[in-house]
Specification:
- Strand 13, helix 13 and strand 14 form a beta-alpha-beta unit.
- This protein has 412 residues and is of the alpha/beta class.
- 38% of the residues lie in helices and 17% in strands.
């Protein structure tokens, strides 16, 4: 099975039209991934290419449209290109014979603003050499840069080395999903309801990733449906180190699992590795401040076709409305779509984000914080409205303490 996109290092290729972004991607991947043409503007929508780049491992290259695109369609392409910044872990700014001008300087400033690690590639060195003043500027800013020719292959090896050296340190030491909670030799029980949205013949991604990390950690793993949970627990000689459930089964699982056994949800585990669990825990308390008619944004990372009892469109709105006792206006977005203007919302409830990388989730948290709109996620909001919030946070002492502090500060 291929590594999920959300677990890859996202490397974005940026630059003007016809600087050779697509040619460079083809040279790096040694494949004809992107269409190459002498005519400017060949690349319209971002092109994604997953590959292995050792020693980094799985990466995802994003080939974007030129930052100097023009016209009405050009503006739309530019909007998509800039949206890619929100999920870019490492940016590669490509410069060719057109040189370094206002377009490059503007993008350089944006990358600095978003604190995105970057490097500069001077392409087409068979046609032109980089300006000394630009090289001096990059050296002063401590931005790595290399000279290449995508056409001849000169410098491609240096580019690969520079990508590895510039990759963010956190990618090499990514946070653990569950292995720090279930030591080697100990048992985790995973409760996996099989509903209509589960892919036929397969488990959903969060469940697969959790199982794989437990196996890599030499931990034991029992997988069962919610109806078989009690029997599974009875068959164990010693209690499990942790029970993890799909958020939709929180209430039944909480009733079947002894209070002495730590319990949480897959979505809450993902809040740790994709976003900021303690921040999201504090933000969940904003549920108490909702008023009749407030707007709540439900954000879903994947683009599945919703079913009749969809968790984001039906179950969470139902549970939240029942908890508050009055109508709330719910709005839904999917995939990489996320409103630019969040000021009209009182709360954002995001899915676990297994289909997004950490950079995109952190960007969304920052975007919400900038306009004082709290963002939580599915598992946290469900646990809160069902009255088992403290229990679901018990495996995470720092997050639990943040919750208690927030309650004390708010007078709850």
């Amino acid at each position: 099975m291929n590594t999920a996109k959300g677990m890859r290092l996202y490397i974005g290729l940026y630059g003007r039209r016809n600087v050779g972004k697509s040619s460079l991607l083809n040279a790096l991947t040694r494949q004809q991934v992107s269409i190459v043409s002498p005519h400017a503007g060949t690349t319209t929508d971002p092109v994604e290419k997953p590959m292995e780049l050792l020693p980094l491992g799985p990466v995802l290259f994003i080939d974007t449209a030129g930052i100097d695109d023009t016209g009405e369609l050009g503006a739309l392409r530019m909007e998509k290109t800039r949206a890619c910044l929100k999920r870019t872990d490492l940016a590669v700014l490509i410069v060719a014979e057109s040189g370094w001008g206002a377009f490059e300087e503007e993008l350089f400033s944006e990358l600095r603003q978003y604190t995105i690690p970057m490097m500069v590639v001077f392409n087409k060195i068979d046609l032109c050499e980089p300006e000394r003043a630009v090289v001096h500027h990059l050296d002063g800013e401590k931005v790595p840069h290399v000279r290449v020719s995508a056409l001849s292959g000169e410098g491609i090896g240096d580019l690969r080395s520079a990508l590895i050296a510039t990759a963010p340190e956190e990618f090499m030491h990514s946070p653990r999903l569950i292995s720090d909670l279930v030591p080697a030799g100990k048992t985790a029980v995973l409760v996996v309801p099989i509903d209509k949205e589960a892919p036929k013949g397969r488990l959903i991604l969060p469940q697969v990733q959790t199982i794989r990390e437990l196996l890599d950690n030499d931990s034991l793993c029992i997988v069962c449906k919610e109806r078989e949970l009690r029997a599974a627990l009875d068959n164990l000689r010693t209690p499990p180190a942790l029970v993890v459930t799909d958020s939709q089964a929180f209430l039944k699982v909480a009733g079947d699992v002894p209070k002495s056994v730590p319990m949480t949800g897959f979505s809450i585990l993902f809040a740790r590795i994709k976003g900021d669990l303690t921040t999201m825990v504090r933000n969940t308390l904003a549920i108490e401040t909702l008023q009749p008619g407030c707007r709540v944004l439900i954000a879903e990372a994947c683009t599945h076709h919703p079913i009749a009892d969809d968790i984001g469109r039906v179950k969470i709105p139902r549970w939240l409305t029942q908890y508050k006792g009055f109508p709330i206006d719910f709005v839904t977005c999917q995939g990489h779509d996320f409103p630019d203007d969040l000021s009209t919302f009182s709360l954002v409830i995001h899915c676990g984000g297994c289909m997004h990388n950490r950079r995109e989730m952190i960007s969304r948290l920052s975007q919400c914080a900038a306009v004082n709109v709290p963002m939580t996620n599915y598992g946290l909001s469900i646990a809160y409205t069902l009255g088992i919030f403290e229990r679901a946070l018990s495996p995470f002492p720092a997050a639990y303490e943040a919750y208690l502090d927030a309650r004390r500060n708010s007078g709850q």
